[in-house]
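Supplementary Methods, section 5.1.

A reviewer requested that the exact input to the structure prediction be made available. We therefore reproduce it here, unchanged from the version used in the analyses.
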Amino acid sequence: MTKGYAEQLFLQEKPTLALLAIWSLQKTYASVITKEINSTFAHTTKILSKMEDHGLIQFSVEGRVKYVELTEHGYRVVDALKNLIMAIEGETPESIEESKKEDSATQDTEVSEEDKRLTMEHIDRLHGQIVSIYNDHFNENSEPQVIKMKIGPFSRDIQLLLNSIEENENLIDDEGLDKLNEIQNIFDLVMKQ
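The structure derived from this sequence is encoded token-by-token as follows.
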């Protein structure tokens, strides 16, 4: 497969939604993905075949069920798609780098004011993006899978924040905790639909 072919695959809506659906659902099967992306089974299997050719997904058979899941390469592509979504939503490369620095949480019990500030900025950004996406799509009566595909990529960021705060509770104040709880509630609500 040529490089241009891979670019064509992910510059289309259905393959991108399919990859994000696999990521969101973890280990799943083709018929579930077909429903999630509102496609035909034949078109979904064609997309999955192309993804397998690119090393993004792998199939496994358990009993009579053929499961599909992401490979390590697939997870890296999902991360890149998530960064693209964040960039389109207004994140700058500098703020993404800042977020990555903040995500590698310190093991120390003492927290600097800079660490607190970066954590709060990260929570504010996530809160603003997730609430905005949710409200926009909720007001437009968007399909649940569309909202899932927009908000789903933020799960890693939410989990990294939760892990950082679990390691050191001093990173966050009450206002930040309230925003983080709201983010988590919206995320859980959307992903359970």
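Residues 45 and 84 are 25 Å apart (CA to CA). These observations are discussed further in the main text.
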